[in-house]
Every structure is written in structure tokens, then in C-alpha cells.
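A student in our group prepared the protein record below, which I am reviewing. What it holds is a sequence and that sequence's fold in C-alpha cell form. My question to you is simply how this chain folds and whether the C-alpha cells agree. Do not assume that whoever made the record got everything right. I have pasted the whole thing underneath without changing anything:
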Amino acid sequence: MTLTSQQAALLLCRIPNLGPRRIKKLIDHCDGAKNVLKATLDKLLQINGVGPSHIKYLEGWKAHLPQLKKEEKRIKSQGLKPFIYQEKDYPLTLTHTADPPTVFFQKGTVNWKNPRIISIVGTRRPTAAGCRLCEQLLIDLAPYKPLIISGFAQGIDIVAHKKALDLGLETVAVLGHPFGEWYPPEHTKHVPALLKSGAFVSEFWSDDPFDRSNFLKRNRIIAGSAHATVVIESGSRGGSLVTAQHALAYHREVFAFPGRPSDEKRAGCLSLIKNDQARMIRHAKDFIQWMNWEEKAPKKNIQKNLFVELLPEERKILEQLEVASSIDEISLKCKQPIGSIASILLQLELKGIVRSIAGKKFERC
């Protein structure tokens, strides 16, 4: 049976005991989902974390064909667009995480190549002040046209989505359940407006159970799809802090608003700031400064005599730094893995040719 890339990726999602992290390793090593299912035993055993038990499950992929056919019908009937890991339209931000969704489904349209993608998260029971803070942040950031990511939940999530729509900004709601129903039900009234200026995404299949753990699982997509995560209000525990931890693991910026020590709604924010896990911001101006979003006049390209010999791969990266760029942007331009880009940038920093600046960007010295 000849499989398409989409079918192969969908089948990998159904194979037990693999999971997104291991599937990413398989696809990267074999250069495509189709090649994973055709790979030899020796090739698969070269992958760290893949053993005989996993290969046994892989060899039984044909047993999952009935589920595949059912899901393909669902995708077509609901008008969903599948995004496949390693395909060209897959969001670059997610490819640079350790556990991206192998396939996620999207309803609606957004520009995933937006250079300013922010996830905004917070408690499901915000204060009035917290809601105003979220709305004012978006008002002040609106001129920069960011793409706003959140989880469509009660509280800060829905405040962020609604305000983004009011301001004409694109927004993405990451669901913790399959398409076919909306949760919470009272947010169904917001679906038409969001689909006009944004999209819903979900990695869950039609037969996946509605489970609380799925909402925590989807938080990695909220964090991984964004360049930065902002925590508006959060108690000492909750999904917002899980999202922040994912963002930190992905080497993304995390920001949090401070509050009074006695304020339980800001306990999580204060903890992130105290532990140097989040940058404290008071307003949008702080965020814009840290992310280096200010409009600056382009620098004149002055050739310096650095008396330093550069390797070909170092010269290639240096050529991309006519303007300040993030590792994601450099990786895309040079068509090289983010890991090798980070290593070369470090060498250039040590040579005094490149420096890191706010917003996790790099520029020529």
C-alpha cells in the first residue's frame, strides 16, 4: 500500500508507546514519516530512545488503517486542514520544540509566518484589574500586528481572544479536545467571530476521550507556537504555569506582571519572577523593549577589519545578520537545524563578531 505523507504521519500518531518526542526523532532520522514506516531494523535502532518494543509496534502499523480512514473522512467533513511535522507549511516555531504535535488540525486561517507571535495565558478566574491589564496590553501591542495564541478557556484566555478580535488582530485558540464540540459550551457564541479573523487548532482525534489531562497537554502547543509567553494573572498552581514551564524548556521568553505579595491571583507570577524564570513587565513598553520590537533605523554596513578568519558556515550566518534576527529566523534563512545555528553563533560571539540582544536576537557587533 502506498501512503501519502499525511497518512503516514497520522498512522504514527496511532502507534502505541511512541509519543510526539519519539516520533519527531523517528521522522528527523528517516527524513519523513513515510520513510519511518519503510525503514530497516538497523536504521531504526540507531535512534536514541527507540528499542525493539517500539519497532514491534511500528511493524504493526497496518492494524491502524481503519482508524486512519475514519479520521480522513472526519478531516474532510469538518473542513479541517492538517499540518504535518516537517512539511513546508508547518509552523517554524513548533519545529524547534522537542515534542511538537506530529499532526495538528486547523479550522480557519492565520499567518504562521508572522514574526511576532505571542501566547497570553492566565487564571480562569481573573480579577477585573487582570482583565483590564490584558486588554490594555493588547491595545498597546496592536500597532505591531502580533498573532495572539491562547487556549479558549474561561478567564484571561477568552479576554485575550476577544480583545484581539476587537483590535483586528489574528488569534489562534488551541483546543484541549477534538473538533465537533466547543468547550466551555458558553464560548460557542465566539466561534464565528474567531473563525473570521483567526483559527482553532487541535491535535486530538475524533475518538480521543474528553480528559482533563488533554488540556495540560495542549499547553505545550500554546507555548511552543509562540516567540514569547505572557502570564497576566496566575495562582501558585495552574495551567498558566505549566505553559510557562514549557516555554522555558523551549528557550522562549516568558513575561509576567507583578502584584502585591498578598495577592493570591498573582502568586504564580511573583514566583516566576522571583525564580528568574520570567521577566517582570509593568506595561507593553517593557515587553516591546525586551523583545526588541522598537522601530530602528537600519545600521550602515561598515566592514570592520577584525583580523579573524571565518569558517564558511560562520560567513553564511553572518551574511544573514544585516538586521537583528532570532535563531528561528537564521535557521529558516540558512536552512540549517537550530542546534547547529546556536553552536555557530556561540563561536561568533566568542570571536567578538556577533552579540546577543533583547528578545533572544543576534546582531553584528
